[in-house]
Amino acid sequence: KEKPKNPWHKAVVIFIAVLGIIAIVALVTTAVLQNKPLQQKFKYGIVLDAGSSHTAVYIYEWPAEKENDTGRVKQKHFCQVKGPGISSYSLSPEQAGHSLRLCIQEAVLNVPRRRHHETPLYLGATAGMRLLRMENQSLCDQVLGSVEKVLQSTPFDYQGARIISGQEEGAFGWVTVNYLSDRLKQGSGTTGALDLGGASTQITFATNQDETGESAENTVTFRLYGNDYFLYTHSFLCYGKDQVLKLALAQQTQAGASTLLDPCFNQGYSTNLSYSSVYSSPCITTQKPLAAGEGFTHRGTGNALQCQEVVRRIFNFSGCTFSHCSFNGVYQPPLQGQFGAFSAYYFVMNFLNLTSDTLENNMEKMARYCSTPWTQIKQQFPNVKEKYLAEYCFSGTYILFLLTHGYNFTSDTWSNIKFIKKISGSDAGWTLGYMLNLTNMIPAEAPDTPPLPHAGYVTLLLFTSLLLFLILLCSLRSLWVRCTSQRQII
Ligand SMILES: Nc1ccn([C@@H]2O[C@H](COP(=O)(O)OP(=O)(O)OP(=O)(O)O)[C@@H](O)[C@H]2O)c(=O)n1
Ligand SMILES: [Ca+2]
C-alpha cells in the first residue's frame, strides 16, 4: 500500500540543495574578492644625481604593498638638468640651486599631488663636489647651501643633500645593477658594477670573504634578503674621463710649448686651449710650466699606438704593497663573474660600436677610428656635439687601457663585461641603490612569502567547494532514494 507522499520530502531536499549551492557560491566569491590584490597604490621616491658634468633627476615608483619585494621599484621619469654639474657654479653658488628648478617642476607634475608630502627627495653629489671640497670648503658649502634652499622649498619630503663617498657610489651602483637584474633574492651569482663618470671611476664586485681582509677601505658588506655579500669596491678620484684628459694634457705640456701634437686626437683636429683650463683642476699636481704663455694650440695627429703610450703615463703600476693591485698601489682581488659597465663606459663604447666584439677586434676598430681624419669624422657624425666627438679617440683608448691594464681584464674575460645603459627600463647607476638603502626597501632578511600565490589559493578553494558540492549532491541523492524506497516498503 502506498503511503501518501510526504510533500515536504521533495521540498526539503530541493531546499537543502539550493542552500548548499548558495553557500558554496558565496564562499568562493568572498574568497576571491577578499584576497583580490588591492587597487595598486603607488609610492614614489626622487634622487638627484649631482655629477661632475651634469645633474640628473630620477623619479622612482613602486606598488606600495610590495615594497619589500625585490625588483619592484621602477624608474618612472628622468630629467637632465640643463647646464653643467653643480660644482661648476662655485663662482656663483646661487645658480647651482636655480639650475634645478625646471627638473623639479617636472617632478612635481610627474608625482601625484596626494603623494607629494610622503615622497622622499635626496640629492647625492659625486666626484665634482669632492674635488671642489678639496679646493675650497667654503665654496663647496655655499653650493650645497644653494641647492638645499631650492630642494627644501619643494612639496616633497626633503631628506638632505650631501656629497656621497666614492665607496657609496660604487656599492650603490652594484646594488642597483643586481636589484634590477633580480639577482639579490636567489643569493645566486651577482654582477659586478663598472661606473665611469667625468671626474671619477668606480669598480665594485662581490668577492670571497677571505679576500676582503687585505684592505678594509675597499670592503663593503651587505646583508640583503637573508644573503651576505662581501664586496670589493674602489673609486679612483680624477680617473673620470674629463679629469683623466686633463691629466694627459698636463703630462704632454710640461715643456710649455705653444703647440701640442696629440696622438689621441684625430689628424687635422685643432683648437686653442688655455693652460688654466688644464692646470686649474685639483687633479693636476704638476705645476703649470713656467715657460708657458696663456695657452697652447692643441693639434691632433691621430695615432692609436702612440695614444696608448700617452694614456699609460697617467697610470702608476709600481709600488703595490698588497697581494695584487690594479694601479696606483690600489688593492684589487682577482676579478670574479660578470660585469655591467655603465654611464660614460656606455656612452663612449656604444658610440664607437665597441660593445659587442672581442678585445682584439675592439683594439683594431679603435685604431681605425683614431687614424680617421677629423674632417671625415665630422662629416660622418654631423649631429654629435663636437666636444664629445673630438674626445672619443682619447676616451675609447683610455677605457680599453683602464679595463685591461688597469683592472686586468683579458681577451678571455673581456666577454664578461656588458656595456649597459638601462636594466628593465631603469638607468644603471648609484641613485636607485642609494634610495633603496635609505628607504630600507631591501630587508636584511627575506620577507616570508605567502604559502600560496593568490591564483593558487583560489584554485584550491574552487576545488574544495566543488568537492563539497559533489558530496552534498550524493548525500541528497541517497536521502531522496531512501525517502522514495521507504514509501515502497510501506
Ligand atoms: N651622451 C653622453 C653623455 C655624457 N658623455 C660624457 O660622459 C661623461 C659624463 O658621464 P657621467 O656619468 O654623466 O659623469 P658624471 O656623473 O657627471 O661624473 P661623476 O660621476 O664623475 O661625478 C662626460 O665626460 C660627458 O661629456 C658622453 O660622452 N655622452
Ligand atoms: Ca656619475
From TrEMBL:
Bilayer topology reads: Multi-pass membrane protein
Q: Which cofactor does it need?
A: Mg(2+); Ca(2+)
Entry EC no(s): 3.6.1.5
Q: Could you list the residue ranges forming a coiled coil in this record?
A: none
Q: Which GO terms describe its cellular component?
A: caveola
**Where in the sequence is the active site?**
E169 (proton acceptor)
Give the UniProt keywords, A-Z. Answer: ATP-binding, Calcium, Disulfide bond, Glycoprotein, Hydrolase, Magnesium, Membrane, Nucleotide-binding, Transmembrane, Transmembrane helix
UniProt key word Transmembrane? yes
Q: Which PROSITE patterns match?
A: GDA1_CD39_NTPASE
Q: Which residues bind ATP?
A: G198, A199, S200, T201, Q202
InterPro entries, A to Z? GDA1_CD39_NTPase
Quickly give the catalysed reaction. Answer: CTP + H2O = CDP + phosphate + H(+); IDP + H2O = IMP + phosphate + H(+); ATP + 2 H2O = AMP + 2 phosphate + 2 H(+); a ribonucleoside 5'-triphosphate + H2O = a ribonucleoside 5'-diphosphate + phosphate + H(+)
Per UniProt, subcellular location reads as:
Membrane, Caveola; Membrane
Q: Which GO terms describe its molecular function?
A: apyrase activity; ATP binding; GDP phosphatase activity; ribonucleoside triphosphate phosphatase activity; UDP phosphatase activity
Subunit structure of this entry? Homodimer; disulfide-linked.
Q: Which PANTHER family match?
A: ADENOSINE/GUANOSINE DIPHOSPHATASE, ECTONUCLEOSIDE TRIPHOSPHATE DIPHOSPHOHYDROLASE 1
Give the protein's function. Answer: Catalyzes the hydrolysis of both di- and triphosphate nucleotides (NDPs and NTPs) and hydrolyze NTPs to nucleotide monophosphates (NMPs) in two distinct successive phosphate-releasing steps, with NDPs as intermediates and participates in the regulation of extracellular levels of nucleotides. By hydrolyzing proinflammatory ATP and platelet-activating ADP to AMP, it blocks platelet aggregation and supports blood flow.
Q: Which family does it belong to?
A: Belongs to the GDA1/CD39 NTPase family.
Protein name, as recorded: Ectonucleoside triphosphate diphosphohydrolase 1
What lineage is on file? Eukaryota, Metazoa, Chordata, Craniata, Vertebrata
